[in-house]
Amino acid sequence: MPHHSFASDNYAGAHPEVLAALAAANTGHARAYGADQWTSRLQDVIKTHFGDQASAYPVFNGTGANVVALMSMLPRWGAVITSRYAHIHNDENAAPERVGGMKLLTVDAPDGKLTPAAIDEHAWGWGDQHRAQPLVVSITQSTELGTVYTPDEVRAIADHAHSLGMRVHMDGARLANAAAYLGVPLAAITTDAGVDVLSFGGTKNGLVFGEAVIVLDPAAVEGIDYVRKMTMQLSSKMRFVSAQLLALLDGGLWLRSASHANAMASRLRSGLDELIAAGAAPGLAFTQETQANGVFAILPPASVEPLREQFGFYDWNAARGEVRWMCSFDTTERDVDAFVAGVGAELDPRGA
């Protein structure tokens, strides 16, 4: 298997600029639990990206960010409307439900994106004591299927949710990839589009560890400081989380890294499209648009394991042979071209 696999952007190491920021923060003593100069500076930088009302709450990981965000947005009787593909539903071992005590109400989203009409499937029953109260809509940007909400699509969801008295949470584990694809500032698909609370991702974009809950509308949360502590997401040496986030956000590393990952996914898709056009990849088909840094495809069953052994990737839907190929900030053109060549060598009937 080559050094860089296509399994997940979580596989990538830390960006050298992030490691340098960590080393620079490792100087002497600093006040604990967020009362340090790096966390203070982070608040200023967050405002430049997300607006004057925005405030950041660094946490350890993405699941923690989602749980802290949603718990602070909901009463104990609250429910969250989200896609059936949502990370909070499929990949967090029911942490929002087990730890946060909330109900997740899922709807179908064939391209990974919610719509106002899909939300309406569960947007009812307020005041009914027998039903968990739908009070938050949670969307993922970019989605679990690699697709991207436009600013207008986010705004339509936010306007609809707000008109029904609900708040909007965004799981932004790959927010940087979405903004890079759209060519817009981070605020354009968050604050300006009506999102209330954001889980901002760092680990998938070159951090060693650390994410942040970013409160865009202070009225959307209650007791978030207490929630972060009681859910074990309050770091005593918070400077080391904040320093990494600063390395990402204070100077454009977030955009450079995400743009590169997206470009590698686009190169992969283009190379495989050329194989298909040449008749060199029978049985290969794509299941989603390639917009961010993920490529979703169907492979002939017999080819999955031989290719996986060489290049490393995960099944998305093994029952129908659907796989996911992810690119990272450190994926190289050589990695991509080797993968395309490997697919061609495996599938091309003319080589048999």
Automatic annotation (TrEMBL):
CDD domains assigned to the protein according to its UniProt record, in alphabetical order: TA_like
Limits of the Aromatic amino acid beta-eliminating lyase/threonine aldolase domain: 6-277
Membrane spanning stretches: none
Domain of life: Bacteria
Zinc-finger among keywords: no
Required cofactor(s): pyridoxal 5'-phosphate
Keyword Signal belongs to the record: no
GO BP annotations listed: amino acid metabolic process
Matches recorded under InterPro entries: ArAA_b-elim_lyase/Thr_aldolase (IPR001597), PyrdxlP-dep_Trfase (IPR015424), PyrdxlP-dep_Trfase_major (IPR015421), PyrdxlP-dep_Trfase_small (IPR015422)
Keyword field: Pyridoxal phosphate
Gene Ontology molecular function: any one: lyase activity
Similarity field: Belongs to the threonine aldolase family.
Name the UniProt record assigns to this protein: L-threonine aldolase
Originating species: Sanguibacter gelidistatuariae
